[in-house]
Every structure is written in structure tokens, then in C-alpha cells.
Write a structure and sequence with these properties.
The chain is of the alpha/beta class. Helix content is about 35%, strand content about 25%. It folds into 2 domains: about 5-125 and about 285-300, Rossmann fold; about 130-270 and about 310-330, Dihydrodipicolinate Reductase, domain 2, CATH 3.30.360. Helix 1 (about 15-25) packs across helix 8, helix 4 (about 80-90) packs parallel to helix 5 and helix 7 crosses helix 9 (about 305-325). The radius of gyration is 20 Å and the shape is globular.
Length: about 325
Amino acid sequence: MPTDTVRYGMISTAKIGINAHIPAAVKSHNSEIVAICSRFDGPAKQAAEENGIGRWYGSYEELLADPDIDAVVNPLPNSMHHEWTIKAAEAGKHILCEKPIAVTMDEVREMTAAAEANGVLLVEAFTHRLNPHMRRARQLVGEGAVGDVRHFEAVLAFTSRDTSTDVRLKPELAGGGLWDAGCYSVSAARFILGGEPVRAAGFAADSGNYGVDTSFSGLLEFPGGAIAHMRSSVEQPGTNMGEVIGTKGKIRIPHLFEEDTPLVITNADGEERVETFAGEPRFVVQFNDFSECVLTGKAPEFPPEDGLANTAAVLALYASASSGQITAVERV
């Protein structure tokens, strides 16, 4: 492996890989996507040619067998993360796995064990927590700037453009609004509040009989009494925001994902101030950080155990929605 650059393979031609990961790798100072694959020759060849990638493969197995690939990005559908992350680990590749890391606790544990057994890194690709406004919000909450937190809200909603082909609407691929979008809200709550939820209450709707939730609302109770409200949807107008409310003030995050999003901070007297930020694109930061860990042996800020905790919270929300009962979040 080169001493200054991690060579990545992209497993599949998924849109987030093409639209987000590949452009970010070009801007990264220590990362390069050198190969891409698909289940068939045609899509892989086309994606490689259109994106200036030197090698392409008509199967996932061929890419994993390439000795000149150090790490992979796994943006496959949710149900496939487990299988191909383990196979990548067994091939000696570090893995940057798109969220959600997996869809059962056992899957996450098996993926973690495979990474450890083969001496490779595994990180769940939540990019929003790398943004400067998210990190500042966490700092302010930790410093007591809003007093005791009583409420947190995070919303991520959008409208699926093609319901006939959208993998988010396919139960066999572990689709669903909470798995796809709501997991970001759960991660944001855990990150900003700096703790793990203990109980969950969830409410799901399936508007098209798809077999998955098209809209989901959930509550997570944190130690100390803070309640986080999660809302996700693949059938609602685009909404993306977060807010922390405490006994001495509140912090509003107008957009969880944009790097230059400000924080609107209001004190108990209603006085408002705004903090502004400028940062590198979050996918670039993700590549820089992950590749630094690969190259230097530095421990990732977010190990797979963090993904296990996020999965536990999401599963508790789904269990509550199914049972109609408040559900304990599994401790990890």
C-alpha cells in the first residue's frame, strides 16, 4: 500500500457512490477510487469511463480479489451490507460502509468480528456528524449552554421519485423510511446529546402497501429525562433540521447536512445569536479521516460499536411500532 494514499474500490454503481463518494475522493488529499464494480460488465464499464476510474469489474468478487485495492466503499442496499462487508474484510480490505451499517444486532457483531479477525477497519458512513455545526452543537450542549436538555428533534424527509424501482421501498432489501433516513436522526440525537437512549416509542405508516414504513415518527428517552423526537419519510416534502431545547435555551440547526449551516442559539430571555461555519464537504472529510486511520493506525472516532448502538436504537423504534408498546433499547 502507498504510504500517502489509500486506494479504494467502489462496490456497485449506487447513486450515492457516483454522486457523493467519487467526487469527494477526487478532492481528498489521501484517497483515490481506483476501481468500481457492478453485477454486470456494462454498468461497471460505463461508470468507470464516465468518472475517470481506471479499472472496472463485472462482479463484486473480482474487485475484492484485486491486490491493488486497500479499502472499499460499500454503498449496497441495506440488506447486503452484512454479506459484502464480511467478504471485503476476509479479502483484507478496510471498509467504509454506508449507513445503516446493518439491520440486525447479530449482523453488526459479525461484521465487527470479521474486521477484527482480519486486521481491517470498519466504519459506518454517517457524514452529518462531521459537519462543524453538529460538532459545535454537541460542544454547547456538553458545556450546559442550554441547561438541562428536555427535548431534541431531528427531521429528515423527502419524496421518493420512482416508487417502482426505489430500493428504499423494497422489504427484501431492508428498505423503509426509518432505516434510510431516520437512522440519521437517531445518530444525530445520540451524537449531540452525548449519550445512549434507554426506551423507544415508534409509530409507522405504510401508505402504499410496500411492506416498509414510508413515514415514521419515534421518541427516544435518554438518561436524565431528555426526549428525542425522530421523524423520517420517503413520501413527504423535503425537510431537514434539528433542534435542542433545554431549561436555559435552545439551539436550532436549520440543515443537518450542509457544511455552512449556521446555529441559531436562543437563551432563556429569548435573545438570539447566530454562529456561522465554513468547512470542507463532509464526504471529503470522511475520506480524509478514514484514510488517515488506515495509513497511520489511528483509531477511528466512530468504531463499529457506535454503529451497533445506533442499530439498537433503530430496532427498538421498529419493535415499538410493531408491538404498540414502549420498548427498551438494548444496551451494548
